[in-house]
Amino acid sequence: MNFDSAYSVKKPETITAESTAPELVRVVGLFGLTAISLNGVIGSGIFVLPATVAALVGAASPVAYLIAALAITLIVLCFAEAGSMFERTGGPYLYAREAFGRFLGFEVGWMFLLSRLAAGAAISDAFTRYLGYFWPPLGSGAGRAISITILIAVLAWLNLIGVRYGTWAVNLFTIAKLLPLLLFVSVGLFFVDSNRVEFFTLPDMGGVRQASLALIFAFGGFENASIPTEEVKNPRRNLPIALLVSITVTTALYILIQVVALGTLPELAKDETPLASAGRNFLGAGGAAIITAGAILSTTGSNSALCLVGPRILYALAQGRQLPAALAHVHPRYRTPHVAVIVFAIIVWLMAILSDFAMLVAMSAMARLLFSATTCLSVPVLRRRVDAPRGFRVSGGATIPVLAAAISVWLLTGINKTQAIAGAAAMAAGVVLYFIFRDRDE
């Protein structure tokens, strides 16, 4: 793979919208873009995942993380190359539409949007459960509803008054969420019983197969950085760097967390709050509180990134004339897609208050595999069609994109019946919406 200054082939089909003023502004730098990617990956899942993986893989589970990271890196490389070809908002929606046409592009954009909405609702629920650790009334009933309302309202407001403020919030919460995890790792390594951890043993592949879906999805969310491209400085260069840095940092942190959890918590596989329990073992009574506070910061950070990214996919779909035009309006003062921000926040709030979270997770699982596969398959097509400079290219021809797409399809075979039904229903709803808005798209 290499970073190139320019690359030129056929001119692509472009997504156009009626001229509007004002436009979005490019204020998101490399650090902010990396923070958006990291916030998408490191959420509430890592606070419970070590127990799940240990139960399936055992002492060799750190190696399983490494295997999963290598697999997901192939997908990240495809996102890096596809993203380096464009300076427009849209991410997987844009790549699929440019490569495969309006219909598949809309389906990918629709599923990506649903996955962000589902993630925002589920993370809001997790946020209230962690708050309930410190004050139980906030974890259920009216307290839960009030907590969710305040969280979403504040994050939406920050993203409405300017992408700069939304990015600052993401940056702040990225640092804040990493500090407790780094404390957990840096202190915990001194208490690890090395006899409980196997570093050089290949894990049982049957266990890896069972754990693969959870592991791969633990690394998901990096694709958030591919969405707000119109507001990113030098996106063709910065997006590939942000994606590769975030997956590298995440891999190292996840493996170290698993090592500490394995080495300090004998009953890890059976523990429902593994990081809090392990932290209590070597950080004392305050250890669990520190880790739980980290989980609150982590869920808040993840939602801050979603409140920035989610409205931009609504904006991109509207800009492509595949959703109501009002969603593409840009605020004359704040230079943000304010209508899309408000609509996204309201839907997330409603889903967080009212939805079945098992169904949300199921729908999100299939959606992520769909837009990952289409992005990987779009890369060879876009190489032939896009006439624009790009900052990154994966070497080896179509080998890595095809292999990465195959991994996504293989994972798709591992979804359960509930996930399949939820995903199929969501895709069917997308077909209906596509034909409703088709006249505007032509």
How does this structure look, described?
With 442 residues, the protein is mainly alpha-helical. The protein has one domain: Amino acid/polyamine transporter I. The chain has helices at 30-41, 49-57, 61-83, 92-100, 102-134, 141-160, 163-188, 205-218, 235-264, 274-283, 285-319, 338-354, 357-385, 399-412, 417-436, 438-441. The longest helix is centred in the C-terminal third of the chain and has 35 residues, at 285-319. It is globular and about 60 Å long. Mean pLDDT is 86; it is low at 1-20.
Entry keywords:
0% strand; 442 residues; disordered N terminus; globular; mainly alpha; Amino acid/polyamine transporter I; single chain
Secondary-structure map with pairings?
Blueprint: H1 30-41, H2 49-57, H3 61-83, H4 92-100, H5 102-134, H6 141-160, H7 163-188, H8 205-218, H9 235-264, H10 274-283, H11 285-319, H12 338-354, H13 357-385, H14 399-412, H15 417-436, H16 438-441
State the share of residues found in helices, binned by percent.
55-70%
Main β-sheet: number of strands, strand sense, barrel status? Answer: none
Structural class designation:
mainly alpha
Integer-rounded radius of gyration:
21 Å
Uncertain residue ranges = 1-20
How many structural domains does the protein architecture include? 1
